[in-house]
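Section 3.1: Structural characterization of target chains.
Under the original work plan, the team committed to producing a structural model for every single-chain target entering the pipeline before any wet-lab resources were allocated. The record below documents one such target. The sequence was received from the expression subgroup and is listed exactly as submitted; it comprises 264 residues.
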Amino acid sequence: MQQLPPQPAYILHSRPFRDTSLILELLTPDYGRIACIAKGARRDKQRRQRALQPFAPLLVTLMGRHDLKTLGPVESAGQSLWLKGRAVYAGLYANELLVRLLPEGEAQLSVFAAYQQLLAQLAALTGEEQGIEGAVLELPLRRFELQLLQALGCCPELDFSPLGNEPIRAEAFYRLTAEEGFMPVHLPAGAALRAGDFSGAHLLAVRSLTLAGEEGFVEDASPEGCRAEVLAAAKRLCRQILSPLLGNRPLKSRELFRQVYGTQ
């Protein structure tokens, strides 16, 4: 049986398989999203299943020639990250995005690094942040979404307008189109933004989410109201891009969050 070199991995999803086994969806740097059978994992609850938990860094060996591999030896690759409260649902949301959007078997070095960064930031939270404090949960989520969309080639340039062949201008307004990316639009003074419209200033600030650490972002957008507006624009942008990629099937993690906290 062919054996692949050991890989760092995280478990994105698991489901029962036959009487005693599990099918796992893994995220790895060299093979991206890859599925495998963990034979006997449901029977050996004291040892093997306990190790196969989400958000835990693993070193796995996969075996087999077919798309559905067999899980071989598993080792811990570091301390498990314990997410709390709202951060748990943020982690589940990220896992579901990866399962739904990543192609199987393609290297995803940048996505793996972005996921590791997301988990580290989520693990540092109490999980009960709300209001202004809630930005510390929104910020890593929006950054991860943007980095994932960029890796998939689905995120338009946030600092350039192809139609005008010019950089995005902070004082201008733009409309996101599937064909042309951001195209300039004229809005009368005081007019409300439409769903697909964004201010240039917000687009440039959103772009910084993929480039700078959290501290740098906070320093660059010191007024709390402005920071909230930028995060709201980032959320609106990500949802607009993600919607056609995800299709009509709702995200289970979003439904769970709504049931527990009553918000999205």
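Residues 214-223 have pLDDT under 50 and may be disordered.
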